[in-house]
């Protein structure tokens, strides 16, 4: 393996179902215009909850992608993941058939999987007894099912797995898919993250941890990364999927190439269940740069983890400074969670899509609601308005409960 010639890997397709748009075009336009996706919760009666706001996906109809029977047998997180995967495949114009099925794989991460189904079936158990539980409960609930069902609906028979690393899951999925193609185990991978955790139990649990914003009267301004007045993250839902492809194959089939993925850094804090140490984040950024053969000066943009929690934002700022040195003050950074909320395991997926689009379009999305900068957060977070700027190379950060840290590095394909 040491002497193996690593394959170059490019991004040829993108799919996104998000709180600010249900396809790639809507999502990207939403990011650039600073669209807010956060509003009072409509998916259940949240009147008794401490946090009554979320970034819900609006107007998504699973029947646009799936027949009624199939859609009914999926939790929402799987519906979103399969739909975004079908979008990405169509965007890549990649056909999966008997000739290449074994060479196309799927890795789709999620943080909590089919929580809504679990909650609903627990109510059935208590009210009507064990004999009334749905035979589809287990296959609807388990976290790997977005990846498994995507393979079933696309015919992809290559490597298939699921990353469950909390808020780093989507980024781990993309990084792991990159490694598989790099080393010749697949020619193409459908990869990213999906989540549908706007449910009563999930919202109550995160609120009980004091992780969520309680700015219920002003939802549009609740997610405010790097701002002095931030008070927690806002739950989001959706899915972001990339088609990664071996460069040779992409060129052979004359595919559109958005960007090249060149680096994957992955570490663990080994420190605390929920509080970041910062050291692991620094090392993840450094590893992604080293893996991609990139100097700090090459990085023009970072899509920050930027959760809008008191703990994350200054810690991430310090990590960027340590990893990039002086370049930290020259790089444009934004937290798109200011608009989409935090999709947990889905966040790495939609944020990688945003990072790739920043490179492809030379446009940097803003951080909205950054009105009173935290003195500890003193870098260039592109406040308020998007920016036209050449982006040769960019990083996407994702940090999850348990101390999981992931940084992905992308650059223009030349």
Automatic annotation (TrEMBL):
One Pfam family matching this protein: ketoacyl-synt
Residues annotated as the enzyme's active site: 167
GO cellular component: cytosol
GO MF term (any one): 3-oxoacyl-[acyl-carrier-protein] synthase activity
GO terms (BP aspect): fatty acid biosynthetic process
Name of the top EC class for this enzyme: transferase
EC identifiers of the protein: 2.3.1.179
UniProt keyword Transmembrane helix present: no
Record's keyword annotation contains Transferase: yes
Pathway: Lipid metabolism; fatty acid biosynthesis
Superkingdom: Bacteria
Reaction(s) catalysed (UniProt annotation): (9Z)-hexadecenoyl-[ACP] + malonyl-[ACP] + H(+) = 3-oxo-(11Z)-octadecenoyl-[ACP] + holo-[ACP] + CO2; a fatty acyl-[ACP] + malonyl-[ACP] + H(+) = a 3-oxoacyl-[ACP] + holo-[ACP] + CO2
Limits of the Ketosynthase family 3 (KS3) domain: 6-412
SMART domains the record matches: PKS_KS
Keyword field: Acyltransferase, Fatty acid biosynthesis, Fatty acid metabolism, Lipid biosynthesis, Lipid metabolism, Transferase
Family according to the record: Belongs to the thiolase-like superfamily. Beta-ketoacyl-ACP synthases family.
Function noted in UniProt: Involved in the type II fatty acid elongation cycle. Catalyzes the elongation of a wide range of acyl-ACP by the addition of two carbons from malonyl-ACP to an acyl acceptor. Can efficiently catalyze the conversion of palmitoleoyl-ACP (cis-hexadec-9-enoyl-ACP) to cis-vaccenoyl-ACP (cis-octadec-11-enoyl-ACP), an essential step in the thermal regulation of fatty acid composition.
Protein name: 3-oxoacyl-[acyl-carrier-protein] synthase 2
Organism of origin: Hydrococcus rivularis NIES-593
């Amino acid at each position: 393996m040491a002497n193996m010639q690593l394959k170059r890997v490019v991004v040829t397709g993108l799919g996104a179902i998000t709180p600010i748009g249900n396809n790639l075009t809507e999502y990207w336009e939403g990011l650039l215009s600073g669209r807010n996706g956060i509003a009072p919760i409509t998916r259940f009666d949240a009147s008794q909850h401490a946090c009554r706001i979320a970034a819900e996906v609006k107007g998504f109809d699973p029947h646009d992608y799936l027949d009624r029977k199939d859609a009914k047998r999926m939790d929402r997180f799987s519906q979103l993941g399969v739909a975004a995967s079908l979008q990405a495949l169509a965007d890549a114009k990649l056909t999966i058939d008997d000739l290449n099925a074994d060479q196309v794989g799927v890795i789709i991460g999620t943080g909590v999987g089919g929580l809504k189904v679990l909650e609903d079936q627990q109510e059935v158990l208590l009210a009507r007894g064990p004999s009334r539980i749905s035979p589809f409960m287990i296959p609807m609930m388990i976290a790997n099912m977005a990846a498994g069902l995507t393979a079933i609906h696309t015919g992809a028979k290559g490597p298939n797995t699921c990353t469950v690393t909390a808020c780093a899951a989507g980024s781990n999925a993309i990084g792991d898919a990159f490694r598989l193609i790099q080393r010749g185990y697949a020619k193409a991978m459908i990869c990213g993250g999906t989540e549908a955790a706007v449910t009563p139990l999930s919202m109550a649990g995160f609120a009980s941890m004091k992780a969520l914003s309680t700015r219920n009267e002003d939802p549009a301004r609740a997610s405010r990364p790097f701002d002095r007045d931030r008070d927690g993250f806002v739950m989001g839902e959706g899915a972001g999927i990339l088609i990664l492809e071996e460069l040779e194959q992409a060129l052979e089939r004359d595919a559109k190439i958005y960007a090249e993925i060149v680096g994957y850094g992955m570490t663990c804090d080994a420190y605390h269940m929920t509080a970041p140490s910062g050291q692991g984040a620094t090392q993840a950024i450094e590893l992604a740069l080293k893996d991609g053969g990139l100097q700090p000066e090459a990085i023009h943009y970072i899509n920050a983890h930027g959760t809008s929690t008191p703990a994350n934002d200054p810690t991430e700022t310090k990590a960027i400074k340590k990893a990039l040195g002086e370049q930290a003050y020259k790089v444009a950074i934004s937290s798109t969670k200011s608009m989409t909320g935090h999709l947990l395991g889905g966040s790495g997926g939609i944020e990688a899509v945003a990072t790739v689009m920043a490179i492809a379009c030379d446009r940097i999305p803003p951080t909205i609601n950054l009105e009173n900068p935290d003195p500890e957060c003193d870098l260039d977070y592109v406040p308020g308005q998007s920016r036209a700027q050449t982006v040769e190379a960019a990083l996407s950060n994702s940090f999850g409960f348990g101390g999981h840290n992931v940084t992905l590095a992308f650059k223009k394909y030349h």
